[in-house]
From TrEMBL:
Signal peptide: 1-20
Keywords assigned: Signal
Organism: Undibacterium terreum
Protein name, entry field: SH3 domain-containing protein
Length: 122
């Protein structure tokens, strides 16, 4: 096989799997939009727990992990919604840049803080 043929052959082998993952993530996103439970702003503070990197996901499914985007234990995020075992969060780094996406809920603990007032208190 010539080098170009090898590249084309490898692309044909990999493509069906990439498409399958994209399909899983697209379906998980649609499902999440319908089933999400919003986190009240006054309860939105979360801290990363556990060991090692806590990865972001493009959709609430283990197959949708973003390989190079993660935060570490003790980083603080704001939670916006929950779906099954995932929480949609936003993280701001020290330069003010943000990253948002789904994260495994098991990697987060409630801090008892939030970014808004508690309108439910009387």
């Amino acid at each position: 096989m010539r080098p170009r043929s090898i590249t084309l052959y490898l692309a044909m082998l990999i493509s069906p799997y990439a498409g399958a993952t994209e399909s899983v993530c697209a379906k998980a996103s649609v499902k999440a939009e319908k089933e999400k439970i919003l986190v009240p702003a006054y309860m939105s503070g979360r801290k990363v727990i556990g060991k090692g990197e806590a990865y972001f996901y493009t959709a609430p499914d283990e197959q949708c992990q973003v390989k190079n985007i993660f935060i570490i234990p003790n980083d603080v995020v704001q939670a916006y919604s929950d779906v099954e075992n995932f929480t949609y969060v936003i993280y701001w780094n020290v330069k003010g840049k943000d990253v948002s996406g789904w994260m495994l809920s098991s990697r987060l603990v409630d801090t008892g803080t939030g970014i808004g007032p508690n309108y439910e208190q009387k």
